[in-house]
Amino acid sequence: MFFMRGATPSEPAASAADPGPVDDAPAIELRELFRRFWPWVRPDVRWLPVSAVLLVLGAFGELVSVWLFKDLIDDVLVPRHFADFWPLASTMLGVAVVAGLLTFAGTYAGTRTAERYMLRLRTDTLAHLHTLPPDTLESRWRGDLVARLTSDIAAIEQMVATGLVEGGVAAVNLLLFAAAAAYLSWPLTLAALVAVPLFVLSTGLFGRRIRDRERLVQRRAGGVTALLEETLRNAVITRTNGQEAREVARVDREGRALLGAELATARVADLYQPFLGFLQLLAGVVVVGVGALELIHGELTLGGLLAFTAVMAQLFEPAQQLAELAPLAGAACASGERVLELHDLTSPVQERPDAHDTGEVRGRLSFENVHAAYPGRHGPLALSGVSFDIHPGEVLAVVGPNGSGKSTLAKLVLRLMDPRTGTIRLDGDDIRDLTLTSLRRVTTLLPQQTALFHASIRDNIAYGRPDASDGDIERAARNASAHDFITALPDGYGTVIGDDGFQLSGGQSQRIAIARAFVRDTPVLVLDEPTTGLDARTVQQLIPPLRRLMAGRTTVLITHEETFLPLADHVLTLQSPGPRVRQAREVRPMNGSRHQA
Asked: Rounded to an integer, what distance in angstroms lies between the CA atom of residue 496 and that of residue 502?
């Protein structure tokens, strides 16, 4: 049985402006930044005080070394007690080594916490994006979304995790060294504070190694960015194949590889600063040792003055770090606005608390006076008063001009959007009473744009059912008329086809997509313009595999191709938008009897 009535769609045209970054993110202050983004710190929050304590102890060790240096001058060199030089010098060097190790450990603990924080925030943000309607993602520049997931999250981390520790440590160190300087000489302290010296540090011994590791980090970061772009680009096929968790896991794996590269760099880079400090102090000891020879000639330098100079050198670094917090906070708040704008988006498609699984599905699909509109868009409805009822195994062809609402109808079947009014039923159940996972588990979408991933042909075919056997994959490829060209490739089913299948022709790419639908083997199919952009000869070649795919399955076939109409049991014609609601024209089911829409 089949009936239709009142099908008067009017899908709004796309905005004339190109999609781009959203500029209406709510204002955020520093306190709000910490409140909203602190939860991602909590799993590693214990490492923040550990890092801070280690860094302060390292700074205190440096101050102890300076005091030992003063004692070396005043108690060894000035009174010429040279027998005590090497024991005291050795003690000073030992303290310096311990201080350097403490600084390295504290910095590395902070870096580890920061990198893990970014990984969690990025993964959770992506998981949230996969809950949003595809139109929400498509209305934004993919590059902007990737920037929010990468550079903006990094800027947030610089304040919420790293900045918190470094700011606190810098404040303590500033007070520590300022008190030491004042104790040594108030006049010199006041004089030194008149101007802040500019310290220029060379790349030194670690420069080449750091550069090599940074190159690996950049490659890994590029891989994460590319994967993020791919998973966002293929959001519809991911959603309708029920692979949201899988995509998040893929990004998580790439993120962990990036994490490893970042930590490898950190192990070298974070050792650089304390090693420089050790070298400077060692040079000072050597200078004092050489200066001891000059003591014989009666030329002496007061230990307190030299110690004060060393303390001043240590004082300016925390002062500089505190000065850098203001621009860091500004950048973090700006980035926080952009990331929170994504987190605050909600999907109009929500699963009901009492939703149940589909169970065994026969495939009866019904629309009951369905009206649909896109959220936030003004103008006529996308669909108005659409009703039909197709039985299991029947094929409904949906035809009509561009903008008549055909793709909207496809999205409604898969609950990528919900109707404004009316009911859509599957085997008599309102699909809003079904869990999203189970609904999409029994429904397969073949979208207008063939979605292929940078992976092997085998993995692309098995995307909707990752546990498919090689036999299942080959049978699906044969049914899709793809086996012959696949086996002719150098690596056969193991051939990596690249982003969007750039190594394949349009017809070959579509056969891979058809094979993927065969592997899923769902009772309901939605074919949304499956031959878009293909020439007439290729379209004719795709008819046999599509006929095999639709056999025994309830199918909604959206098409402009007249050659596909003989495959349908019924035809629903949608009209273009107009100033008033109009009735769909008379339609003729393929069995020859007539039904009025």
From this structure: 10
- 24's CB contacts (< 8 A; 6+ apart) are 341
Locus of tokens 């710190």: 41
> What pLDDT, on the 0 to 100 scale, is given for residue 124?
93
CB 394 within 8 A of CB 475: no
The CA distance from 441 to 520, in Å, is 8
- If phi over 0 gives left and psi between -120 and 50 gives alpha, with beta otherwise, what is residue 385? left
Q: Which runs of consecutive H residues, i.e. helices, occur in 344-449?
A: 406-413, 436-441
Mean pLDDT, the chain, integer: 78
Q: How distant, in Å, are the alpha carbons of 12, 315, 470 from that of 177? A: 67, 6, 68
> Which pair of structure tokens corresponds to residue 353?
């608390």
Q: How far apart are CA 226 and CA 498, in angstroms?
A: 12
First to last CA, the chain: 14
Q: What is the pLDDT of residues 17-41, one digit of tens each?
A: 333 334 444 457 888 888 999 999 9
DSSP H helix total and E strand total for the chain:
19, 10
Rounded to whole angstroms, how far apart are CA atoms 402 and 398?
A: 12
Work out the average pLDDT over 329-340.
80
Q: Which residues pair with 399 in a beta bridge?
A: 573
Residue 454 has pLDDT above 50, yes or no: yes
Q: What is the C-alpha separation between 490 and 244, in angstroms, rounded?
A: 32
Give the tens place of pLDDT for each residue, 526-562: 999 888 878 888 888 888 999 999 999 999 999 888 8
Cβ-based burial of 358 (10 A; exposed 0-12, middle 13-18, buried ≥19): buried
What are the CA-CA distances from residue 37 to residues 105, 117, 298, 334 (Å)? Answer: 25, 10, 62, 13
Give CA 69 to chain center in angstroms: 51
Asked if 71 and 185 touch (Cβ cutoff 8 Å), the reply is no
pLDDT surpasses 90 at 425: yes
- Residue-wise over 252-281: b if at least 16 C-beta within 10 A, else e? bebbeebbebbbebbebbbbbbbbbbbeeb
SS3 263: helix
Q: Is the pLDDT of residue 262 over 90?
A: no
| Distance, C-alpha 71 to centroid of its chain | 55
Given this model, what pLDDT does residue 277 score?
Answer: 61
Nearest to 381 by CA among 352, 439, 422: 422
CA distance 457 to 449: 17
